Automatic annotation (TrEMBL):
<dbReference type="InterPro" id="IPR051673">
    <property type="entry name" value="SSDNA_exonuclease_RecJ"/>
</dbReference>
<dbReference type="Pfam" id="PF02272">
    <property type="entry name" value="DHHA1"/>
</dbReference>
<dbReference type="InterPro" id="IPR001667">
    <property type="entry name" value="DDH_dom"/>
</dbReference>
<feature type="domain" description="DDH">
    <location>
        <begin position="23"/>
        <end position="173"/>
    </location>
</feature>
<dbReference type="Pfam" id="PF01368">
    <property type="entry name" value="DHH"/>
</dbReference>
<dbReference type="InterPro" id="IPR038763">
    <property type="entry name" value="DHH_sf"/>
</dbReference>
<protein>
    <recommendedName>
        <fullName>Single-stranded-DNA-specific exonuclease RecJ</fullName>
    </recommendedName>
</protein>
<dbReference type="GO" id="GO:0003676">
    <property type="term" value="F:nucleic acid binding"/>
</dbReference>
<dbReference type="GO" id="GO:0004527">
    <property type="term" value="F:exonuclease activity"/>
</dbReference>
<dbReference type="InterPro" id="IPR003156">
    <property type="entry name" value="DHHA1_dom"/>
</dbReference>
<feature type="domain" description="DHHA1">
    <location>
        <begin position="298"/>
        <end position="382"/>
    </location>
</feature>
């Protein structure tokens, strides 16, 4: 049976680190796929008796996507350590070099598009790597983390653990909008089936809230949970979604769940207002082949959701960014059949970082290069359209 390239090697590296009592850092992207992947690996390590685990999630508002220099500066006090980047890292070339200098053994487990080269890591697991024989390229990182856990624990991969991890994989796969085909069908169906009778306090808590219980199907319930977990923020390097998923009591988790549902409601209002603002401003630029809009006042955490709605409305490549003092950080959404990563490759000399999936990706760009970046994208999509 074909396996994801380097999956067994990563399992061996992690087992060796546990055996040698090395410090292990789990660094996850701050979305549900990254959070879920960290939870799966952390609980896997705990099942092996490992306790020296540091968990870190970057604050997207302050650090952007991926491995950040700010994070490495903070984490260097834990060096030397095995540094496992989850749902990020594949585009962090400079940061990977810094990690190496800081004596971190960097392992990257990701599912985003490979750019022109690979970062300097000890080992990389990404089904989209060149010469990876694994036929299905549409797994969420949580799905890859699940497979890694299975390879690490082997006979100790209990039925309870398996079902609990499948619940997380299902939510992460849906949240990341991965294709619902091949292996993902089983992940989603089995995960949602287990979710109905979950033992995990952080998920069980949602079923005790009336507005969730009254939903007709488990799929609807899952989408409400995803919306709530997506409304969470990072505090002291820990994502609130991680805190609820690792909560030990339903009582404590229910307080968090109710808070997240309220945050989700307010978040939807903010998204709606910004979307309406963009619809109005872009109607004056209807001849442009892309939507390229940003503001000092928008939250970066909302740019992905805003871009999705605008892309669906205008049926155009959409670039929505948060403007900071010196640079801007943005989210990209593409109509079906177009590739945002390939488009940004053509403009990469203007960018700080970029990457993701063909239809959902992100970028950082210095403010002085914003207009040049927009012009480059317009040229690319005018040429592509022709």
């Amino acid at each position: 049976m074909l396996e994801i390239k380097n999956l067994k090697s990563v399992a061996s590296i992690i087992l060796k680190a546990v055996k040698n009592k090395e410090k292990i850092i789990l660094y996850g992207d701050a979305d549900l796929d990254g959070v879920g992947s960290v939870v799966i690996l952390k609980e896997t390590l705990q099942n092996l008796g490992c306790r020296d685990i540091k968990v870190y999630f970057p604050d997207r508002e302050k650090e952007g996507y991926g491995i950040s220099k700010k994070a490495l500066s903070y984490l260097k006090k834990f060096s030397p350590a095995l540094f496992v980047a989850l749902d990020c890292g594949i585009g962090n070339f400079k940061e990977a070099e810094i990690a190496k200098k800081l004596k971190f053994n960097l392992v990257i487990i990701d599912h985003h598009e490979i750019l022109d080269k690979l970062p300097q890591a000890q080992i990389i697991v990404d089904p989209k790597q060149k010469n990876d024989p694994y036929p299905f390229k549409g797994l969420a990182t949580a799905g890859i983390a699940y497979k890694a856990s299975k390879a690490i624990l082997r006979r100790n991969f209990s039925e309870n653990l398996k079902n609990s991890f499948l619940e997380i994989v299902a939510l992460a796969t849906l949240a990341d909008m991965m294709p619902e085909k091949d292996e993902n069908i089983a992940f989603i169906e089995n995960g949602l089936d287990s979710l109905k009778n979950t033992w995990r306090p952080g998920l069980k808590a949602f079923f005790e809230i009336e507005s969730i219980r009254e939903r007709r199907s488990i799929r609807e319930i899952a989408q409400r949970i995803i919306s709530a977990l997506n409304a969470t923020i990072v505090k002291d390097h820990l994502n609130e979604a991680y805190l609820i998923l690792t909560s030990s009591t339903v009582k404590d988790a229910k307080v968090l769940a109710e808070d997240f549902l309220e945050k989700s409601r307010k978040r939807q209002i903010m998204i709606y207002e910004i979307v309406e603002e963009i619809k109005e401003s872009h109607s004056e630029k209807a001849e442009e082949p892309i939507v390229f809009e940003g503001s000092l006042y928008w939250s970066f955490a909302l740019t992905g959701s805003i871009a999705s709605r605008i892309c669906n409305y205008f049926k155009k490549p959409t670039f929505i960014y948060k403007k900071l003092e010196k640079e801007s950080r943005g989210s990209v959404r593409m109509p079906s059949g177009l590739n945002g990563v390939e488009a940004m490759k053509k403009c990469s000399s203007l960018l700080g970082t970029y990457g993701g999936h063909p239809v959902a990706c992100g970028f950082t760009v210095k403010n002085k290069n914003l207009e040049k970046f927009k012009e480059c994208l317009i040229r690319y999509f005018e040429k592509y359209a022709n």
